[in-house]
Amino acid sequence: MDVVQVLVQVRRRDIALLCNIVGSYEGLGIIRTLDAAQGIVEMMIAPAFYDTALALLHDLAQNEIPLHVVGQPALDFG
Fold first, then answer.
1. Rounded to whole angstroms, how far apart are CA atoms 20 and 68?
2. How far apart are CA 23 and CA 45, in angstroms?
3. What is the pLDDT of residue 32?
4. CATH at residue 59
5. Is residue 74 part of a domain?
6. In a domain, 14, yes or no
7. What's phi and psi for 28, nearest 5 deg?
8. Which residues, 6+ apart, have CB-to-CB distance to 20 below 8 Å?
9. How far apart are the C-alpha atoms of 74 and 54, rounded to whole Å?
10. How many domains does the chain have?
11. Between helices 15-24 and 50-63, what is the axis angle to 10°?
12. 37/60 Cα distance (integer angstroms)
């Protein structure tokens, strides 16, 4: 299965919250922590849900969780 990998940096204390939010959108993608100390998580997103996932990240960055995308594709919601 093809996936789009997006690296996201959040505050360390927000990792679990982000994981729970993404997990609540069943089928959106898989998220895992790569570096807890730096707050780096990886989202593996099915291409069909890529736009939805980016919209979710953008909304979270604007309203709930300070975050920015640090991997490819290089986008910043800050």
1. 18
2. 12
3. 93
4. 3.30.70
5. no
6. yes
7. -65, -40
8. none
9. 12
10. 1
11. 140
12. 21
Q: Which domain holds residue 22?
A: 4-69
**Structure token digits, residue 75:** 């986008």
Structure tokens belonging to residue 35: 């570096």
Alpha helices, DSSP H, located in the chain: 15-24, 50-63
Which amino acid is residue 32, in one-letter code?
A: R
- Cβ atoms of 53 and 29 closer than 8 Å: yes
Q: What is the pLDDT of residue 2?
A: 82
Task: Enumerate the β-bridge partners of residue 4.
Answer: 45
Which pLDDT tens digits describe the chain residue by residue (78 residues)? 588 899 999 999 999 999 999 999 988 989 999 999 999 999 999 888 999 999 999 999 999 899 988 876 534 444
Burial of residue 78 (CB within 10 Å: 0-12, 13-18, 19+) is exposed
Would you say 64 and 13 are in contact if contact means Cβ atoms under 8 Å apart? no
